[in-house]
Amino acid sequence: MDSDEILEGLLWLGSQDAARRATSQGMRSVLCCLDELKEAHPGEYSVAGIRWKTMPGFKDGALGTIRPFSEEGADFVQEVVHQGHVPVLVHCSAGRSRSTAVVAEFLMKYRGMSLYEAMAHVRERRPRAYPILTFWLELVEREVELRGAASLDASPVRALHAETRGRQAAEEGSLGHGLTQLLAMGFPEAEALESLQRSGGDLQASVDRLVLEAALAQKKKKK
């Protein structure tokens, strides 16, 4: 099952494949963060004793935004936890970006964690989990709204991302191998290779992952 337990006995984070096995894995609630299922499964419904909720319009990539979906999803998770309708699985396509943003919001809003603490907690249990850069920056804004201050500075993240994207654009067409491109951007070989492996060879996903890890490492070093 492609999912990982984030809060013992309560909350799991995973992929669409994990959702297909929700019944056999003992899930009692499922939050689907897939815009792709909006026509077949709108809103909330129950199947075989499992409470399901979908969030139509929750897109990934350049057209995506976590608002208002991360808050709506976090509220749903809190509701089923409060009602004892657990464990609950939060999933998107790969269990990496949209679902991670929702879980991070839940941990900030209802478990009192900072964004730094929430992301560290999630990634310790599911290393492949990370929001794309736009979601990440929106989470920084949400933390300020929820807690009054940011635990991570978004400025270095933006600067590093802009520099990385600029280097990537300059290298396009001349370097075909993902690892070679990441090395040319200045990422360490071991981290670059691991990131490519975890992202299934997706170069942009690898870049976003490395940028986020660099920001988390910088914050940890300051502590």
From TrEMBL:
Limits of the Tyrosine-protein phosphatase domain: 1-148
Positions of the UBA domain: 168-213
Domain Tyrosine specific protein phosphatases: 71-127
Keywords associated with the record: Hydrolase, Protein phosphatase
GO BP: any one term: negative regulation of MAPK cascade
An example Gene Ontology molecular-function term: MAP kinase tyrosine/serine/threonine phosphatase activity
Top-level division of the source organism's lineage: Eukaryota
Any one Gene Ontology cellular component term annotated for this protein: cytoplasm
Pfam families (alphabetical): DSPc, UBA
TM region positions: none
Alphabetized CDD domains for the sequence: DSP (cd14498), UBA (cd14270)
Enzyme class label: hydrolase
EC number(s) given by UniProt: 3.1.3.48
Membership in a protein family: Belongs to the protein-tyrosine phosphatase family. Non-receptor class dual specificity subfamily.
Protein name in the entry: protein-tyrosine-phosphatase
